[in-house]
Design goal:
single chain; about 500 residues; Elongation Factor Tu (Ef-tu), domain 3; Rossmann fold; Lysin; 3 domains; six-stranded antiparallel beta barrel; about 40% helix; binds adenosine-5'-diphosphate; binds magnesium ion
């Protein structure tokens, strides 16, 4: 009889004790929520009032879940850049502070995926579970944390690797008019990173959806998606989303770099990015400057590209190599955005529409292209093999113009032109056909030894194929030393020359 109430008491006692301790542990806290009101909406931007504490570039959230960035922070009114579909937003809607800056998901889970700058998947491969998040705007590495560029980034494109070499951690601008092969070069560079232990980020900015789909299909077809993240904003996205895209993509790349990886990032292209920023600035009534761009257009690109670097060994030794693309109009490389980018980057690859029309592809204008740091990182064999190639080619280009006037040419001039035509033919390359380093070196050695001069120009592509096939016969020990980046000895060069001579013999008439 007595046991039961006692048992009950015990149960109630422990229950109450639990509740008492839970109540003691509970500290009621007031969480301030700052809620403001939309005063007006325009294309891609909103004016907001009543958020006195909002910080510059703070993320705010509108009634329907649309995100925005506080861009103009005035005492009376805040200009917000909208990052989502704003069609349903109205004046009078509520808007709330989030207290955090814009960030993006990062990590290995993104490899092989196509995402937008907010980290939402655009492919059909399901949701992405984030390893971590990073703010999209981050300070660049300090000077003292950076290491010199010493490792080459092979693009597999002969004219670039030989004459305009790029190193890991470098920023090399690709510029040219529309339809000159800018995207093709960047995509080829990504394809060539297969098996090179380099991760890639391709950031498509304000492109047509069909163009992006084509690029993604090419990457997938060549097995490059395994090591690539594609971040996309399309032409019809809000300008705010286009504006944040390259910063978000860089954060994705930075996460890999800080884990000690080498990363290649392509921004395709920053002309569209600058236009989106101009649109936002004009809508927010910031004063326009040259070409109606706002005054800080230089800063938005320099702070982006400063994040590409090679970190010191004790910080993991990772790197970000950046290939920003900029589109010129009517070959005007002295327009505002191109000149800014030329001065920010460590060199440029200029693509010429006239070469493109002549069928000289890739249409790289060697005379107007330069790489300011990659030369030090270039494989030692190039320096010996490609030494006077640039000079010979420049001489040829100059003489070629004269010879078009039907001038009488002496033998010496004719030889220079004939040799130049072979150089040009050997530097031609179709898309999606990267040439391995040893193959490139063999071609350069054969060119320098004038082995191609006897081959008719029209047969050069075939002769080149034969030569590349013959490279397989290069002895293993030479190959091993070559792969370790050692300089070729005279004997090595002689061995390669002999193989090339053999391969090319049947093409000479
Ligand atoms: N090396 C090449 N060989 C053959 N075709 C090329 C080469 N490079 C580019 N193309 C072609 O030229 C066109 C324009 O190239 P694209 O890279 O889209 O130009 P851009 O990005 O400068 O507008 C595409 O159809 C592409 O396939
Ligand atoms: Mg393009």
């Amino acid at each position: 009889m007595t046991a039961e109430p006692d048992g009950l008491h015990n149960i109630f006692d422990t229950l109450f004790a639990g509740m008492r301790s839970a109540r003691a542990a509970f500290v009621p806290a007031l969480v301030p929520r700052e809620i403001g009101t939309v005063t007006s909406i325009a294309t891609g931007v909103a004016k907001v009032s009543g958020l006195p504490g909002v910080a510059f570039e703070e993320l705010v959230i509108f009634a329907g879940g649309v995100l925005g960035l506080a861009f103009n922070v005035d005492a009376s009114e805040i200009g917000v850049v909208l990052l989502g579909d704003y069609a349903s937003l109205q004046a009078g809607d509520q808007v709330e502070r989030t207290g955090r800056v814009m960030d993006v998901i990062v990590g290995d889970a993104l490899l092989g995926r196509v995402i937008d700058p907010l980290g939402r998947p655009l492919d059909a491969a399901g949701p992405i579970t984030a390893e971590a998040r990073l703010p999209i705007e981050r300070p660049a590495a300090h000077i003292m944390d950076r290491a010199p560029v010493t490792v080459p980034l092979q693009t597999g494109i002969k004219v670039i690797d030989a004459l305009i070499p790029i190193g890991r951690g470098q920023r090399e601008l690709i510029l040219g008019d529309r339809q000159t092969g800018k995207t093709a070069i960047a995509v080829d560079a990504i394809l060539n990173q297969r098996g090179q232990n380099v991760l890639c980020v391709y950031c498509a900015i304000g492109q047509r959806a069909s163009a992006v789909a084509k690029t993604v299909a090419v990457l997938r077809e060549h097995g490059a998606m395994e090591y690539t993240v594609v971040m996309v904003t399309e032409g019809n996205n809000p300008p705010g989303l286009t504006y944040i895209a390259p910063y978000a993509a860089t954060s994705v790349a930075e996460y890999f770099m800080q884990a000690g990886r080498d990363v290649l990032i392509v921004y395709d292209d920053l002309t569209q990015h600058a236009r989106a920023y101009r649109e936002l600035s004009l809508l927010l009534r910031r004063p326009p400057g040259r070409e109606a761009f706002p005054g800080d257009i230089f800063y938005i690109h320099s702070r982006l590209l400063e994040r590409a670097t090679h970190l010191r060994e004790d910080l993991g030794g990772g790197s970000i190599t950046a290939l920003p693309i900029v589109e010129t109009e009517a070959q005007n490389i002295s327009a505002y955005v191109p000149t800014n980018l030329i001065s920010i980057t460590d060199g440029q690859i200029y693509l010429s529409p006239s070469l493109f029309e002549l069928g000289v592809l890739p249409a790289v204008d060697v005379g107007k292209s330069v790489s300011r740091v990659g030369g030090k990182a270039q494989h030692a064999a190039y320096r010996a093999a490609a030494g006077d190639l640039k000079l010979a080619y420049a001489q040829f280009e100059e003489l070629e113009t004269f010879s078009r006037f039907g001038a009488q040419l002496d033998d010496g001039t004719r030889a220079v032109i004939a040799h130049g035509q072979r150089i040009r033919a050997c530097l031609k390359q179709s898309e999606f056909a990267p040439v391995p380093v040893l193959g490139q070196i063999a071609i350069l050695i054969a060119l320098a030894a004038r082995l191609f001069d006897a081959v008719p120009v029209d047969d050069i592509p075939l002769a080149e194929q034969a030569l590349l096939a013959a490279v397989e016969a290069i002895p293993q020990d030479l190959r091993g030393r070559f792969d370790r980046g050692e300089k070729l000895t005279d004997a090595d060069r002689a061995a390669i020359t002999a193989i090339c001579t053999n391969a090319l013999a049947r093409f000479a008439p």
